[in-house]
What we know:
The chain has helices at 4-16, 21-27, 31-35, 97-103, 124-138, 153-167, 191-194, 211-219, 262-274, 298-314; strands at 51-58, 61-68, 76-80, 108-112, 146-151, 175-179, 251-256, 279-284. The chain is globular and about 55 Å long. By secondary structure, it is of the alpha/beta class. Strand 7, helix 9 (262-274) and strand 8 (279-284) form a beta-alpha-beta unit. The two termini are 27 Å apart. It has one domain (4-38, 59-314): Alpha/Beta hydrolase fold, catalytic domain (Rossmann fold), CATH 3.40.50. An eight-stranded mixed beta sheet has the order 1-2-4-3-5-6-7-8, with helices on both faces.
Amino acid sequence: MASIPGRIFALIARAAGNVNPVIVQKKKKNIVKDLRSAEPLFRHYIPPLGYRFRRTDADGVPMEIFSPKKGGSDNAVLVIHGGAYISRMMFYYRLSNKRYSKASGGGTVVHFDYRCAPEYTFPAALDDTQKVWDKLLEMGFRPENIVTVGDSAGGHLTLDLLMRLHDAGRAKPKACVLMSPWIDMTASGDSYVYNYKVDPVFGIRGETPTPEQVKELLGQSELYMWFGDHDRTDPYISPVLNDYDSTYPPLFITVGGDEMLLSEAETLAEKFRAAGVEARLLVGDRMFHAFPVYQIFPEAWRAQKKIAAFISRQLSVEVHRCR
């Protein structure tokens, strides 16, 4: 059973954040404007005591670098933000900086702002992600010392980066954390139907459409404009359809039990396990999309602690350093 704060946050998400195409049309919502509404908040950032923060770029891609002033390590956590490929980086992603730095043994935490739809479509965001990856290597970080963390579209970008590195025969990050990865643009998972009536972000309360109706409804959504004219079944557009092998890194996946995206998270974990790769799946009971990101209710705190423990284990960092 979800905690009371968790249920309250779900109600807020249902009231203010629902992006189901029926709701969007009924309320005459401007998705781009709504998803970018928090961007101007807290442009200036003062890091916690003992940490430094600076802005730079990777061949024109804006980056933020957070690191300890003393006792730093050679590890790095690359955070790839979500936002349906429409929203740019929000201020609240910085709330995890200290936790991720400690989890990586005093590592550097990197955020960046990739180009978004509708101004830019695939593969603009992926190209920007690779530029940042290459920049990290230029800065001296080794792939085996880097963990990537991505939520929603950021989880999708994480997998796309892995596939691009794989296709180029290049080294991949040590491990990846995916929070509610949005990786099936065909909307073919069973949860798109059975969770339609309970998902506070993507669904409509009390309604259970057929699979055909779900695909028709979602096919009309502005959320899908990011990939332009590309085929929805292309593995780079729907990474859940890709075939993975044993060269891919371990995954830690979180997803809400009430999400329409639940099935694709489960399928991805199954595919990695079938390839002989570790894939841990944490399903938050009665939880919603990307719930660990918000960190203001018990389920999110517990998920973040498990994510930190996974990062520490993958980078061989002693757990007591993450407390």
